[in-house]
């Protein structure tokens, strides 16, 4: 069964992440983006030491919008990286201590058709089509282990942030659920997890969209600018909910 396979993959990812933490004292060379690089992007090799050391490195920050080649190289550099936090999979139960928890839930409509459209919208990453955010690769499939880059524009700068999909759930029953979860990789402004869910409760026929996350700053810059980071997270949740509603209702 597909769900069983996803759970096995999910458990393997958790185990791999724990093993990586145990081996963190071993230095290896990885590609690192140069800060404030041009649109073509610049990389240099630097050692990756302990988990603590990697947490202090800033994500890729650009003075101009990166081109497709730069984004592809960034994704390649993150493909072999482990999650940047310990509590992998914690969105399934409770968030770890010391993380900011955020939950936004909004109604999309009623009935099976609305749920089916909402599911398609989530598969197409409609919640990220906000003008100042975009996901790469464009139309990335929701597959466990897939790595995506989230391109964000904040003021005059662009930032690339890497995540890995760690769970995809598609359940039917009295409560129909479709959701996916991704976790942050070392090159991300924050560290933590985020879950996107569409849900149809057949007892009252209502369809809901929910974002649930736990996070905290991953670099010195984002620690210093944590009020701005929280403001951007609230903006993302609000605008994502609006984007999902608009996408779902546009398909009627």
- Uncertain spans: 1-7, 13-58
Strand content: 25-35%
Distance between the termini: 32 Å
Mean pLDDT: 79
Query: What value does the Rg take, in angstroms?
Result: 18 Å
Number of distinct beta strands: 10
Main β-sheet description: 8 strands, antiparallel
What overall geometry do the principal axes of the alpha carbons give? globular
Based on secondary structure, the structural category is alpha+beta
Give the helix tally.
6
| Percent of residues in helices | 25-40%
Order of helices and strands: HEEHEHEHEEEEEEHH
What does this structure look like?
- Strands 3, 4, 5, 6, 7, 8, 9 and 10 form an 8-stranded antiparallel beta sheet that branches.
- α4 crosses α6.
- The protein has helices at 2-22, 51-55, 68-78, 112-123, 220-224, 226-250, and strands spanning 28-33, 43-48, 60-62, 100-110, 133-136, 147-154, 157-171, 175-184, 190-201, 206-217.
- The protein has 252 residues and is α+β, with helices and mostly antiparallel strands.
- The longest helix has 25 residues, at 226-250.
- It is globular.
- The two termini are 32 Å apart.
Question: Could you list some keywords that capture this structure?
Answer:
252 residues, alpha+beta, 8-stranded antiparallel β-sheet, 6 helices
How are the elements arranged and paired?
Elements lengths: L1 H21 L5 E6 L9 E6 L2 H5 L4 E3 L5 H11 L21 E11 L1 H12 L9 E4 L10 E8 L2 E15 L3 E10 L5 E12 L4 E12 L2 H5 L1 H25 L2
Antiparallel strand pairs: 1-2, 3-7, 4-10, 5-6, 6-7, 7-8, 8-9, 9-10
